[in-house]
Specification:
GO terms for molecular function: translation release factor activity, codon specific. By secondary structure, the chain is an alpha+beta fold. 43% of the residues lie in helices and 23% in strands.
Length: 322
């Protein structure tokens, strides 16, 4: 049913775009025949809007990866730097939450480790919506912030780092076999906000896959049993994402231009002082409105990274829409 709804939505969109194009062209012809410049201007405005919509849908059509249509987990981890980096990690968490909400996606907090004074040491959210992983997957990497520190009495400029990790939620159609003897299970008391029972029992669960070193944690439920089940689902998702990443790296091994697209590299800088600029180091995409970006305006960066990831030819197609 989900697949049917997705296809129906795409067909409806194409039909609507075609009809709106015909209507706009018809209005231009009518305005020119009747010598009505205002009608022509309105129709040309509709064509510009249509062009922008078409460009977005063309990029969305590139989301054809094996897991692009899945929901997504997103982890944020503060880098070295104590309170500064932990506050930056919380800002990133808010940025992605706002982006998801603006696109009608649902966001659920899975795990959070609060910082000592402010922010978070780490946090994991689940983003639910069509193509959630397809859009978010290009956000994995190290994010750098430059600003005047609100925690420094001398108001000095500080540079902070935080990492983002994105991986798909695996559904029943994807089978991931894990040897339970390869997994270490730890339980601990939940931190952060929550009900009395959440904070006073060892309900939180952390799973560590010993062969790969991959670790996941869940604390959003009062029941240790439920947290354990969610943690196992997250571990399967991480191992699946690892396999996808290995496949992608193998496929791109001969493409030197893409070797910088890695999960452990700095991908974007957010400069608030001494000037205002957000720059993606992979694509060159820039914005002089960092407040808007931090409030969830990420589409231009995601679209540019997606086009670069899939291939330069798609970039030419999008830029040449007339």
């Amino acid at each position: 049913m989900r697949e049917r709804q997705r296809l129906e939505s795409q067909i409806t969109a194409v039909t609507r775009l075609s009809q709106e194009l015909d209507d706009a062209v018809g209005l231009i012809e009518l305005g020119e025949a009747e010598d009505e410049p205002s009608v022509v201007d309105d129709a040309e405005g509709q064509l510009r809007t249509l062009k922008a919509d078409l460009a977005k849908r063309q990029i969305a059509a590139l989301l054809s990866g094996e897991a692009d249509g899945n929901n997504s987990y997103l982890e944020v981890h503060a880098g070295a730097g104590g309170t500064e980096s932990q506050d930056w990690a919380l800002m990133l968490l808010r940025m992605y939450t706002r982006w998801a909400e603006q696109h009608g996606f649902k966001v659920a907090l899975i795990e959070e480790q609060a910082g000592e004074q402010a922010g978070v040491k780490s946090a994991t959210i689940e983003v639910t919506g069509e193509n959630a992983y397809g859009w978010l997957k290009t956000e994995s990497g190290v994010h750098r912030l430059v600003r005047i520190s609100p925690f420094d009495a001398n108001a000095r400029r500080q540079t902070s780092f935080a990492s983002v990790w994105v991986y798909p939620v695996v559904d029943d159609s994807i089978q991931i076999e894990i040897n339970e003897s390869d997994v270490r299970t730890d339980t601990y008391r939940s931190s952060g906000s929550g009900g009395q029972h959440v904070n006073t029992t060892d309900s939180a669960v952390r799973l560590t896959h010993i062969p790969t070193g991959i670790a996941v944690a869940c604390q959003n439920e009062r029941s240790q049993h439920k947290n354990r089940a969610t943690a196992w689902q997250m571990l399967r998702a991480r191992l699946y994402e690892r396999e996808l990443k290995l496949r992608e790296e193998k496929a791109m091994a001969e493409q030197a231009s893409k070797t910088d697209i890695g999960w452990g590299h700095q991908i974007r800088s957010y400069v608030l002082q001494p000037y205002q600029l957000v720059k993606d180091l992979r694509t060159g995409m820039e914005s002089t409105a960092p407040d808007d970006v931090l409030d969830g305006d990420l589409d231009p960066f995601m679209e540019a990274a997606l086009v670069k990831r899939i291939g330069g030819g798609a970039d030419a197609e999008v830029s040449d829409i007339d």
